[in-house]
Design a protein that fits this description.
Layout (H helix, E strand, L loop, with lengths): L1 E5 L5 E4 L14 E6 L5 E4 L6 E4 L15 H11 L1
Antiparallel strand pairs: 1-2, 1-3, 2-5, 4-5
The structure holds zinc ion (2 copies).
C-alpha cells in the first residue's frame, strides 16, 4: 500500500497502486508519502472500482479516483433499507 496525503487539507489515504489520486474530502492533488501496510477502513468505489483505505476519523466524501460521492451513496442506501 502507498500512503498519500492531500496537499491542501492533509487528509491521508492508502492505495494499492501509484496513480493520480484526488483528495476524497476537498478534491486537491494527493502526494505520495511512503509505503505502508493496509490500515483503517477500506473503501471500494462502486463506480470506478478503485480501492483505497483511510485511517482518518472523517469518512471520505468522494472517491479518490473518480467523482463518485460516497456520502450520497450511503444516504441513498439508508433510505432504501
Ligand atoms: Zn484535501
Ligand atoms: Zn471511483
Amino acid at each position: 500500500m502507498y500512503r498519500y496525503r492531500c496537499r491542501s487539507c492533509g487528509y491521508t489515504i492508502l492505495a494499492g497502486d501509484e496513480s493520480d489520486y484526488k483528495c476524497p474530502i476537498c478534491r486537491s492533488i494527493m502526494i505520495y508519502l511512503e509505503m505502508e501496510n493496509d490500515k483503517g477502513m477500506k473503501y471500494e468505489c462502486p463506480s470506478c472500482e478503485a480501492v483505497f483505505f483511510t485511517d482518518e476519523k472523517i469518512e471520505p466524501y468522494k472517491c479518490a479516483k473518480c467523482n463518485f460521492s460516497f456520502v450520497d451513496w450511503k444516504k441513498r442506501r439508508k433510505e432504501k433499507f
